[in-house]
Amino acid sequence: MTLRFDRLRTLGLGGLLGSALWLAACDPQAIKELEEGVATEADVVQRFGQPERVWPEAGGAKTFEYNRQPEGLRNYMITIGPDGRMSALRQVLTPDNFRRVQPGMGVEDVRRMLGKPAKQVPYQLQNQIVWTWKFLEQPNETRGFNVVFSPDYRVIRTEVGPDPDGPDMRGGG
C-alpha cells in the first residue's frame, strides 16, 4: 500500500513538474503569436490562460498577471487597453524592476511590479517576512531576488542571492 501511494505521489509530482516545463516552453510561442495593438484580450487568454490576478489601470485599461513561480524564472504582466487590445507584454523579473523596489514601499506595490513570488518565508525572531523571486541572471544562472518586509509589509531592504532551491541537481551546479 505504501509503495502504491509513493508511486502515485511521485507521478503527481512528475505531472506537476511536467506541466510547469510545458507551460514555460509554451510562453515563447504564445508571445510570438501576440502582437501589441492587434491581439485581443481573448487572444491573450487563449494563449496564456486565465490570469493569476487582474490589476485595474487608469482609463479603463487592465493588467493581467501571469506568474511562472516557483518552477519558472519569469513572470509576465500583459496590459489590455480600454479598447480590448493588448498594449504591452512584459517579463517583469528584470534588474531594472528589481532596482525600482525601494525601502518603504508596500507589499501590493511590489506584487504589482514583480508578480507573485516563488516563496514567502516569515522570520519570527527577526520580525521580518522575506519574499523571493527566482530569476535568470546572464549568461545562464538561476538566482533569487529577496525583498525583506517589516511586520506591516513595508520594504526594509532588497538583496540578490543564490538560487533559493540550491544548486541545479541535473548536473550543472
Automatic annotation (TrEMBL):
Which Gene3D superfamilies does this one have?
Answer: 3.30.1450.10
InterPro entries registered for this protein in UniProt: BamE-like (IPR037873)
Q: Which residues form the signal peptide?
A: 1-24
Give the PROSITE patterns listed for this entry: PROKAR_LIPOPROTEIN (PS51257)
Could you tell me the superkingdom of the organism this chain comes from?
Bacteria
Keywords, sorted A to Z: Signal
Return the protein name. Outer membrane protein assembly factor BamE
- The organism named in the record is Ottowia beijingensis
